[in-house]
Amino acid sequence: MQNVSEQSLEIASKRYQAGRLAFENGQYREAVENLEKASALLVRNSRLGGEVQIWLVTAYEAAGRNEEAIALCKQLQRHPHSETNKQARRLLYILQAPKLKRPSEWMTEIPDLGALSDNESKVRIAANPPKSSAKKKPAETEFVDLSQVNTKDNRFIWVAITAIGLIISYLTWLAF
């Protein structure tokens, strides 16, 4: 009998670690599956059982399953482990907080590429070759109307040339 519980604890621990890793990699559905299986193998009122369930709450929320996250958080508020029930109260406060409206100009919309089949994505990629490999068009020559250009003599150039000449003469005189 003791051997079975050690086996289930080992399996639960592996599922828990796999669930955390999946969560951290953004694979929320897989995280929920692993954390649910780990939670089923553990005593829910244990410290490890509570920790797994807290992770499950965050995975539910990340996977868009907010009602389940809130319901589990409410259960965890009565957990015997003090750290677990404190985290559950904090998470519940966050989950039930009103969602703020963000102006659309703050957001960048990312297209859903999951709906594309593999063939469509390859066709789109081939249709839009990278800019570095694309042949560059020769730049069109732009003609300037010289009647619109100020062609008067600019006195600044003569002043600058005179100043440079005086400085060179002075430096030459100082060198001898």
TrEMBL record:
Cited SUPFAM superfamilies: TPR-like
InterPro entries for this protein: TPR-like_helical_dom_sf
Presence of keyword Transmembrane: yes
Residues annotated as transmembrane: 156-175
Keywords, comma-separated and alphabetical: Membrane, Transmembrane, Transmembrane helix
Domain of life, per lineage: Bacteria
UniProt-listed Gene3D superfamilies: Tetratricopeptide repeat domain (1.25.40.10)
Name this protein carries in UniProt: TPR repeat-containing protein
Naturally occurring in which organism (per UniProt): Anabaenopsis circularis NIES-21
